[in-house]
Write a structure and sequence with these properties.
The protein is built from eight helices and no strands. By secondary structure, the protein is mainly alpha-helical. It starts with 30 loop residues before the first helix and ends in a 16-residue tail after the last helix.
Length: 202
């Protein structure tokens, strides 16, 4: 059953569960898709997965997105804990269960407290955040909900992470919103055994 929001849009996480863009069989790939899939596996060491499955329908976009993701995950100016924490904020904002399922265990391993991830899952501001997590939370939630960042939140992030860190934090928000939007459109299936992320109401 579809539930529609204020402007008649389908609420994320409340649509039918059928995957609209499942993995393309190898013999069904176009030459460009096959080349992109091979390049992806060569760069990442794993076959196309998660959000890159629907993105493979646009092979050059998939490769560009993958390469941006590699930088934002492993080469940015932010500590891994803050990057993964921010990804969870984005996943929760978009009610994106695949993004949550992939990154919640990584965030825990990187040092984000279980109580913090639980609060995010429930749509609450965590009261167990470290000082730098609080900075990332305020910056990211303002950017998502207000489409801007206040002077106070900008100054705090700038003092802690520097200008490159502020840009990388912005990039993480934008990049993982892109992946979340892609998977919400495609209704990408949650990995087997992953914890469900319930949609927020309203």
């Amino acid at each position: 059953m579809l539930r529609r929001g204020t402007w008649g849009t389908v609420m994320a996480g409340e649509q039918d569960s059928a995957d609209r863009m499942p993995a393309i069989p190898t013999d069904g790939l176009t030459p460009a898709q096959a080349e992109a899939a091979a390049a992806f596996e060569a760069e990442r060491g794993v076959p196309v997965f998660g959000p890159f499955v629907p993105l493979l329908r646009s092979p050059e976009l998939m490769l560009c997105a993958s390469r941006m993701g590699l930088y934002l995950r492993y080469g940015s100016a932010l500590p891994l804990r803050i990057s993964e924490f921010t990804i969870l904020i984005v996943a929760r904002a978009w009610s994106q269960p695949v993004e949550w399922a992939i990154h919640q265990p990584i965030a825990l391993k990187a040092g984000v407290a279980p109580e913090t991830t639980q609060a995010l899952a429930e749509g609450r501001r965590p009261d167990t955040m470290s000082a730098d997590e609080a900075l990332a939370y305020d910056f990211s939630t303002e950017l998502t909900h207000n489409h801007a960042v206040s002077d106070a939140s900008y100054a705090g992030a700038l003092a802690r992470f520097g200008e490159q860190g502020v840009i990388d934090l912005t990039g993480i928000n934008g990049y993982y919103a892109l992946l979340a939007m892609t998977m919400n459109v495609a209704r990408t299936a949650v990995p087997d055994g992953a914890s469900a992320l319930p949609p927020l109401v309203g």
